Amino acid sequence: MGEPLEKMASCREEAGQPSLVAEAPTACHGCGAALCLRKQVVNLALGNSDPMYCLGCLGAESSQGAEAVLLALKGYVLARRCFAGQWLRYPDRRCCPDPRGCFPDTCFSGQPGAVEGGRERR
After folding, report:
1. For position 17, what pLDDT does the model report?
2. For each successive 10 residues of the chain (122 residues), what is the average pLDDT?
3. b/e for 61-74, b at 16 or more Cβ within 10 A?
4. How many angstroms from the chain centroid is the CA of residue 70?
5. Which residues, in sequence order, are CB contacts of 112 under 8 Å at separation 6+?
6. Model's pTM, two decimal places?
7. In terms of C-beta density within 10 A (0-12 exposed, 13-18 middle, 19 or more buried), how is residue 60 classed?
8. pLDDT of residue 11
9. What is the DSSP string of the chain?
10. Looking at residue 95, what is its pLDDT?
11. Would you state the torsion angle of the CA atoms of residues 68, 82, 33, 13, taken in this order, to the nearest 10 degrees?
12. Nearest-5° Cα angle at 19, 121 to 51
C-alpha cells in the first residue's frame, strides 16, 4: 500500500504542483473512497462541486460501470481547456494514487506512460 503513495509523492515532486483541486472534497460522498485529482475533475465536468463521488458511485448512479463513466467523460474533459489543464497535472500513470483500485490504462491512454498494445507509450 505504501508503494502508490511513494509514487504519488515522487510525482508531486517532479511536477512541482499540488495534487488535488483546492477546496474540493477529497473523499466520495457516497462510500468514503479517496478522490484523486482526475476523479475531482470528472465530478466538476458533471457539475458536482460538493458533494463529489468516486467512479464506482457515479457508475451506479447512472447504471454504468465505473470504467464506462471514465471513458464517457474523458474526451469531454480533454476537449475543455479548463478541465484539461487540471487533468494533465497528472502527466503519466506514475501519478495514479490507486492503480490497483482504478483504471490507469483507461485513464492515461493516449498519454506518455500509458500502456497500449502491451507496451508503454513514450
Report:
1. 47
2. 46 58 93 94 96 96 94 94 92 86 91 46 40
3. eeeeebbebbeebb
4. 8
5. 91, 92, 121, 122
6. 0.78
7. middle
8. 64
9. -HHHHHHHHHHHHHHTS-SS-TTS-SB-TTT--B--HHHHHHHHHTT--SS---HHHHHHHTTS-HHHHHHHHHHHHHHSHHHHHHHTTS-SGGG-S-TTTS-HHHHTTTSTT-EETTEE--
10. 85
11. 120
12. 115
| Chain position carrying cell 475531482 | 40
The residue type of 8 is M
Alpha carbons 70 and 108: distance in angstroms, whole number: 11
In whole angstroms, how large is the CA radius of gyration of the chain? 14
Separation between Cα atoms, residue 85 and residue 62, nearest integer Å: 26
**CB contact at 8 A, 95 and 15:** yes
